[in-house]
Specification:
Blueprint (H helix, E strand, L loop, with lengths): L4 H7 L4 H4 L5 H15 L6 E5 L5 H8 L3 E6 L2 H6 L6 E5 L12 E6 L9 H14 E13 L2 H9 L5 H13 L1 E3 L6 E5 L4 H7 L5 E5 L10 H6 L1 H14 L11 E7 L3
Parallel strand pairs: 1-2, 1-4, 2-3, 4-5, 5-7
Antiparallel strand pairs: 5-9, 6-7, 8-9
Amino acid sequence: MDVTRELLAYYEQDREHDRLREGHGRLEFWRTQDVLRRRLPPPPARVLDVGGGTGVHAEWLSADGYDVELLDPVPLHVERAPALAGVRARQGDARSLPAADASMDAVLLLGPLYHLAERADRVRALAEARRAVRPGGLVAAATINRYAGIHETVGRGSYLRENERRAAHAAAADGIMFSPRRGFTAYFHHPEEVPGEFADAGLPEVAQYGLEGAFWLMGDVGDWLDDPERRALLLDAQRSVESVPSLLGVSGHLLTVAHRPR
């Protein structure tokens, strides 16, 4: 993907390393792990983690026995990720994967799609994932939901600031979200538009999973995540409603999964 100066400046602050390891972000992390562990082929399958950052998911995938290669456009991420046991990393673009045809058992796009504002670029990235995965192999992509900006800014209290409020409502209108706090533009999907992008990339049959449900909007969700027993109950609660169509858009993030047709 195009790495703008603003995007590079944000990620070179190394904020991504802890985003899913601390605080409320752990709900997204554990739910992504929960869904993927149910959908991935068994280890030692070959997994390409595209836009994998510093390896937050590559780390547990490798520990589970998968053969993991991480691809990311940010030099700092590519420098840090190989410090994790069993993780290989190189710099690259989701729209032009340095992988041979049908060479992977699974391709994960857990970061790239919301950094690609143009639909054609998102479809191209999904088509590259389809090309790189073997017939019957898995393609999984994360997207940010259209109204997440409104939900998040209210939850953080930044909705009181006019520039944040304006940006959140602009994203709700057309999907283009410029974050004054982060300094770069992202794309926020309607859940129902994601299957069309998958279909245009040659992946016509999808399953969709709301990752956080409404629970990310709870002020005390951190207390649940800190307690292993309560965390297990919270994950089970969201698992029970994860694919209810009327609830998909409530989550901050959506995970869409497809198999390359045989």
